[in-house]
Every structure is written in structure tokens, then in C-alpha cells.
Write a structure and sequence with these properties.
Blueprint (H helix, E strand, L loop, with lengths): L1 E10 L2 E7 L4 E5 L6 H13 L18 E10 L2 E10 L5 E4 L2 E2 L12 E4 L5 H4 L2 H13 L3 H27 L4 H41 L5 E6 L7 H7 L1 H7 L10 E6 L2 E2 H4 L2 H23 L4 E5 L7 H13 L5 E5 L2 H10 L4 E7 L2 E8 L4
Helix pairs in contact: 4-5, 4-7, 5-9
Keywords: ATP-binding, Cytoplasm, DNA damage, DNA repair, DNA replication, DNA-binding, Nucleotide-binding, SOS response
GO cellular component, one term: cytoplasm
Main location: cytoplasm
Length: 374
């Protein structure tokens, strides 16, 4: 599966843009701020029904306009399929596949998978547990509809339970019977979420380690750990033990919404002990493992989106990454960079053909297809 045509209207910095893509490697080259990343983000929108960079849909509309539209044509086996995303201020977001509007956006997730590797991935290391949970849950949700439903229900029940705790506090009483109604639903969904996360992480770790070893030339040991309160106590015991604390703080202090994922290098937190290059390699390995995982579950190759990935990687890691992308047949790849000569050198050294686009002043200009000399 590959994206053949992309059309943007009033999306971020683009008034109108149309791009015809290669099914293999596409490079978008231009200065910082020209809108290279916005092209990749539009494709991520088509995959996940939301922006990778800004979850507020209306803030992705071109300044001074009231709507944006992203349209696309995808080649799937011998057929073509169209995907449409439309956002208008004050109205519900519209997604269509082959001109048929989705009733639930969740039905679209996983049909046109994409994996983004971006400088913003550093938030997985630097920010709190919520960012890491969303990352893992986003992977699982693309192939496990039951997990997605449990996750959505858990979020709604958690909000209701928190609202009830706050309301009880304002009236100065605590009604255990009313809380128990929400506890039962929270426990049922939470146990399912925990079970799936545990299984996926166990299977995900060796894939991730394989890619990191490849990038680092087997020089460093890394690992990924799933951390959950449910490893130490049952959900029922957790809620019972946290009853007084929940009353005092007026929100639910325990559960799978507190889960986290530990990132380590040589047994130590990579946030504190990893260099910038090691941290970037770690994040790239996570995303490549995510790609392989989705491919094995969905039986279709995600589009691989590589945004400004060469910064802070030494030449050896860059070379190994490009060899990997070429030799392992990752399918369609889109790459952004500021340096035209760097792109040309990397692909010529690895004898890889690519299609190049120049981006400047909110416009996209296709240049000739580059064929590396053998």
C-alpha cells in the first residue's frame, strides 16, 4: 500500500498544494519553517484522524481561513482508494473513505497506517508518563479494536468517577455505593488494558532491541520496561487502599491511567545517562519496531515518515539507518531535510533511488527523480 497523490487546501501554511509521490522514497528539501514537516503531518492526519503535532484541529487551519481539507489517493494492491479529511471551525471533523463518511473515526484507525519519526519524539523521553502511554496505546489501537473500546470506555468512566469524587467533596459526604458503580466498570476495562499492554510490551522488546543494536553496531544495551501498579496489587485492592486519598484529592489516584514505560540504556535511565545521539537512536529504534509490529499485525506496510532525523546522528548511524530503510524494504518512505547535498550524498553512497521535492515560500516543486550511480 502506498500514497500516490496528496492534496492540501488551507492546511497549516499551504493555501493549496498537490503532490504526486513515488511508492518508494520521497525527499522534501527546504529551509527550516518552509513547511516540510506539515506535509508529513498531513499524511499522519490521514492515518490517525489527528495531527501528530497539534491535537486541536482548528489550529491547523491556515491563518485567516475557516476550514482545511486534506485529500488523497492510495494504491492498494490493484485498486485505488481515496481518503478525505475536512475540518471547519465550529463543526464536526469529517472523514471519508471512497466518498463514504465514517460514523465513528475509530473505524478508520489501522486502515492506512503510518509511522512518524520526528524530533518531537524526544518528548517520549523528556515528558511524563501520559506521553508514553499514548504512544503505546496508539500502536495497539491500530490493530486491536477491543483494546481501543476498553481504552475509550476507561477514559469516560474515569472522568465520571473523578467528577463524582469532586461533587461529593463539595457537599461534604462520601457515598461508597455510588462510587462502587464506577469502580466495577473501571476495574473491568483496566484489567483488560493492563493485560494487553503487558503482552504487547513483552513481544515488542526484542524487536526494538534488534533495531537499536543495528543502529549502534552492537555497542550498547537498551531495554524497555512496562511499569504498572497492577503488578503489585489487584485493581480491587488498589482502589480500596486509595479510598481515603481519592476522597482527599478529589480524583482517582490509582489505576492503569498511572502506568508508565521505563527507557533504559546499560541499565540506567536514558533520560539521564544517554547522549543526544543515543537518545535519538533509541527513539528511532522504538519507531522502527513500531513499524515492524504494525506490519506483522495489519499485513500492510505503513508509510514511514522521517522528519529531520539526520540531526544529532553520527555518520555511522545515518549510514546504517539508510541501509536498513533500503535493504529491509520498508515500503513507501517520506524524508525531510534542510540540506540538499547531504541527502544526495547519503543516497548515492547507498545506491538508492529517490524522488526529490523542493519546498520554499509555501510551495512544493517536484525535481527530477534521482538515481544513485552504481
Amino acid at each position: 500500500m502506498s500514497l500516490s497523490k496528496l492534496s492540501l487546501i488551507n492546511f497549516k501554511n499551504y493555501k493549496q498544494a498537490d503532490v504526486s509521490l513515488s511508492p518508494d522514497i520521497n525527499c522534501f528539501i527546504g529551509p527550516n519553517g518552509a513547511g516540510k514537516t506539515n506535509i508529513l503531518d498531513a499524511i499522519y492526519y490521514l492515518s490517525m484522524c489527528k495531527s501528530y503535532l497539534n491535537p486541536v484541529d482548528s489550529q491547523n487551519i491556515l491563518f485567516g481561513e475557516s476550514f482545511f481539507v486534506i485529500q488523497s489517493i492510495w494504491n492498494k494492491d490493484e485498486d485505488q482508494e481515496s481518503v478525505y479529511c475536512g475540518v471547519k471551525k465550529g463543526q464536526k471533523k469529517v472523514f471519508k473513505k471512497n466518498k463514504v463518511t465514517y460514523e465513528k473515526l475509530a473505524d478508520h484507525i489501522g486502515l492506512f497506517p503510518a509511522v512518524m519519526i520526528s524530533p518531537y519524539d524526544r518528548n517520549l523521553i523528556l515528558e511524563g508518563s501520559e506521553v508514553r502511554r499514548k504512544w503505546m496505546d496508539g500502536i495497539i489501537a491500530q490493530f486491536d479494536r477491543d483494546f481501543l473500546q476498553d481504552l475509550m470506555k476507561y477514559g469516560k468512566v474515569l472522568s465520571q468517577r473523578n467528577a463524582l469524587l469532586k461533587n461529593m467533596s463539595s457537599y461534604g459526604f462520601f457515598d461508597q455505593e455510588s462510587i462502587s458503580v464506577w469502580d466495577e466498570q473501571l476495574i473491568a476495562c483496566g484489567k483488560n488494558i493492563h493485560k494487553v499492554r503487558k503482552r504487547v510490551v513483552e513481544e515488542f522488546i526484542p524487536i526494538f532491541q534488534k533495531y537499536y543494536q543495528w543502529l549502534s553496531d552492537n555497542k550498547e544495551e537498551v531495554s524497555l520496561e512496562y511499569r504498572s501498579q497492577l503488578f503489585d496489587q489487584s485493581f480491587e485492592e488498589l482502589l480500596e487502599g486509595a479510598k481515603r486519598n481519592d476522597q482527599r484529592k478529589q480524583y482517582t489516584t490509582v489505576g492503569t491511567h498511572k502506568d508508565d514505560f521505563g527507557f533504559t540504556i546499560k541499565g540506567h535511565p536514558i533520560k539521564k545517562f544517554g547522549s543526544q545521539g543515543q537518545q535519538k537512536s533509541y527513539l528511532i529504534a522504538l519507531r522502527l519496531a513500531q513499524y515492524e509490529w504494525l506490519l506483522s499485525r495489519l499485513n500492510r506496510k505503513p508509510v514511514l515518515l522521517l522528519d529531520d532525523i539526520f540531526d544529532k546522528l553520527d555518520n555511522g548511524r545515518v549510514e546504517r539507518l539508510m541501509q536498513m530503510v533500503s535493504d529491509q524494504d520498508f515500503g513507501q518512505v517520506l524524508i525531510t531535510d534542510t540540506d540538499k547535498q547531504r541527502i544526495a550524498t547519503i543516497f548515492e553512497n547507498n545506491q538508492i533511488e529517490y524522488k526529490a521535492f523542493h519546498i520554499e515560500e509555501n510551495s512544493i516543486v517536484e525535481t527530477e527523480t534521482k538515481i544513485a550511480s552504481v
